[in-house]
Structures are given as C-alpha cells and as structure tokens.
Design brief:
2 domains, three-stranded antiparallel sheet, N-terminal domain of TfIIb, about 140 residues, 3 helices, 6 strands, three-stranded mixed sheet, alpha+beta, GMP Synthetase, Chain A, domain 3, about 25% strand
C-alpha cells in the first residue's frame, strides 16, 4: 500500500539494548535492558518504552484528528496510556503485546467508543500493527 510520505526521520542505535540511540537532530538516548530481560535495569529507556510513548502520543493525535472530523471536542485532559509487553512466543523468537487505555473525561460512552474506533482505523501505529499484533483498547 503506497504512502505519500510527509515527514521522515531516522535513528541510529549502537550497543544493542544497553547502548544508545542517536535520533535525527543529534539528540542521544541512553538505552538499558530491563531486569526482567536479564539486564541491569539502568536509567536508560528501552525499545518497549519508546514504542509505548510513540503509540500513546500518536493515538491521542489520531483521536484529536477524528474528533475534529466528527465535530466532537476532545477534552484538554484526554490521555492515552499504552502498555507494551515483550516475551517469548510459542512459535519461537520474541513477540510484543500492546494495550491502550483511553481517557476522555466528559465524553459520553457511546461517543467515546465511536471516537476510539475511528482513531484506531486512522492511527499510523494501529495501521502498522494491524494483523500483526492484537491491540487491546479500553475506555477508562
């Protein structure tokens, strides 16, 4: 499926899960392996945390976009919490899990459900993971 790219960026990682990533613009992120995966659990971020941050921010952006299209004001204090897990797959290798908890204070439940479903069809992270990763959606 072709994509008309409006923005692209890149990052270069060295040292693996206990290394660093340099993102475009020169910023550097320290990486640390969680203790649960045999690492030190140091102060750096890990790929799952970065994926959770990206997915939650992107999904909230999608909610705002579809809210505008549907003429529904997204509350200032709306929030999306992404929970990302990693572990061995029964088929071998490792896999990830994802769950999004969406908070839309003051939005009626039926309207919130329509917004969340529309955002899930719009969000680039949802589209990238569709048919590869089951994403649990919960409205708080």
């Amino acid at each position: 499926m072709p994509v008309k790219v409006l923005y692209s960026t890149k990052a270069t990682s060295t040292g693996g899960r206990d290394g660093k990533s340099r993102i475009e613009g020169g910023r550097e992120l320290a990486l640390s392996t969680p203790k649960e995966l045999g690492g030190s659990g140091g102060d750096g971020a890990n790929p799952e945390q970065l994926f959770a941050a990206g997915y939650s921010a992107c999904f909230l952006g999608a909610l705002k976009a579809v809210g505008g299209q549907m003429k529904v004001k997204i509350p200032q204090d709306a929030a999306v919490t992404a929970t990302v897990g990693i572990g061995p797959r029964s088929e071998g290798g490792f896999g990830i899990t994802a769950a999004l908890e969406i908070s839309l204070p003051g939005v009626a439940r039926d309207e919130a459900e329509r917004l969340v479903e529309a955002a899930h069809q719009t969000c680039p992270y949802s589209n990238a993971t569709r048919n590869n990763l089951d994403v649990a959606l919960t409205i708080a």
